[in-house]
Automatic annotation (TrEMBL):
Family according to the record: Belongs to the DTD family.
Organism of this sequence: Corynebacterium striatum
Alphabetized UniProt keyword annotations: Hydrolase
EC number: 3.1.1.96
Pfam family, one: Tyr_Deacylase
UniProt cross-references to InterPro entries, sorted A to Z: Daa-tRNA_deacyls_DTD, DTD-like_sf
The organism's place on the tree of life at top rank: Bacteria
Protein name per its UniProtKB record: D-tyrosyl-tRNA(Tyr) deacylase
Gene Ontology MF term list: D-aminoacyl-tRNA deacylase activity
Amino acid sequence: MRAVLTRVSHASVTVNGEVVGEIDCPDTGGILALIGISRIDTESSDSELEAAIEKMARKIAELRILEGERSVEEAGAPVLVVSQFTLYGKTAKGRRPSWSDAAPGEKAEPVIERITAKLLSRGLHVETGKFGAMMGVSSVNQGPFTVLVEA
């Protein structure tokens, strides 16, 4: 699995014109986490998948990427989690990306939910998009500061 983590002062997700998830954190900053689950992740053993889920949640919570080298956990900052299967798009050949490395929705959705639950269990404020929906994602990046995390 992989995630693109972006430090933001504001981020939101709309579906059919309705805001379904939003963080507003001009003082502390927060994290917009675009998370993709691969086919390999969902074909792993239960223990390997659980370790990857734990690692991803830990990285999102503990990476020191907010202002002053603080983590969202330290700063009490919010996280907006958005599923993003396109992180596994292959573009090496042709002009049309291949999505064959991305996990199918019915297998990826529970993994995204488990990552979100792990973040919530750490006491973080977590908002989410809507899995499988056509989402409008907006963000006001700080820095800009963006990192790629793989678990």
